Amino acid sequence: MNPSPHHQRRAFVLTLVSEPGVDAIKAFRALLKFALRRLGLRAIDVQERALPAQEDERALAPTMEDSMSAFSERVRSQKKGFFKVADLEGGKELTLTISHLDEEMEIFKETKDILNFIETGQQLQVNQTVAEWLIDNLDDDPEKWPGKRVTLYLAEYEYKKKKELGIRLKLPPPGTGDGTVPVRPRHEVPF
């Protein structure tokens, strides 16, 4: 019995080239894990090959999309964990593109919603204030948030008569477009 076209397994061939200074094996293993766990794509054949000089030069050539140095991008993208107040101290603001929301994740025996971004491995724990802002400003459906740009900043709040700083969100400053960046749909695969 032949599977329908929608259920037919497909195969792709892709050539990847590591940027200078990147641990290529480590990065490739991480990519394979991500492809399987998040996208449902399983690697069945991998071959390492030397690039002809012409292809190597093409891979290293800067593109119009390179808005920051490869070093800067690599360092910033490798930072992991959750954003902390210290990341934004001194009036620093950070405008990022939402990748997706992980809902009801179990973290240190607590259930949290986690906001993920395209430009960084860092994530934002979504508290009640941030959740309400997202719903009021982006949409009440988190499936519509990918591609939306938000600016992280610090704001003061009061808790038990003590003033603290917390991470808040706002819309990006004027002149940065409509705040939307195209994002490919993310397909979850059960583990």
Summarize the structure.
With 191 residues, this protein is α+β, with helices and mostly antiparallel strands.
Number of structural domains: 2
Please give the alpha-carbon distance between the first and last residues.
Answer: 28 Å
* Percent range of helical residues: 10-25%
The structure class reads alpha+beta
Q: How is the quaternary structure best described?
A: single chain
CATH architectural category of the largest domain: Beta Barrel
The tally of beta strands, per DSSP, is: 5
The coarse silhouette is globular
The amount of beta strand, in percent, is 15-25%
For the residues shown, what is the average pLDDT? 78
Runs with pLDDT <50, length 5+?
181-191
What descriptive keywords fit this protein?
191 residues; 4 helices; alpha+beta; OB fold (Dihydrolipoamide Acetyltransferase, E2P); 2 domains
Overview of the structural elements:
- A 5-stranded antiparallel β-sheet has the order 3-2-1-4-5.
- It starts with about 25 loop residues before the first helix and ends in a 21-residue tail after the last strand.
- It has 2 domains: about 1-80, no CATH class; about 80-170, OB fold (Dihydrolipoamide Acetyltransferase, E2P) (Beta Barrel), CATH 2.40.50.
- The model is unreliable at about 180-190 (pLDDT under 50).
- It is globular, with a radius of gyration of 20 Å.
- Helices cover about 25% and strands about 25% of the residues.
- The protein has 4 helices and 5 strands.
- It is α+β, with helices and mostly antiparallel strands.
- The protein has helices spanning about 25-40, 55-60, 70-80, 130-135, and strands at about 95-105, 110-115, 125, 150-160, 160-170.
- A hairpin with a 5-residue loop joins strand 2 and strand 3 (about 125).
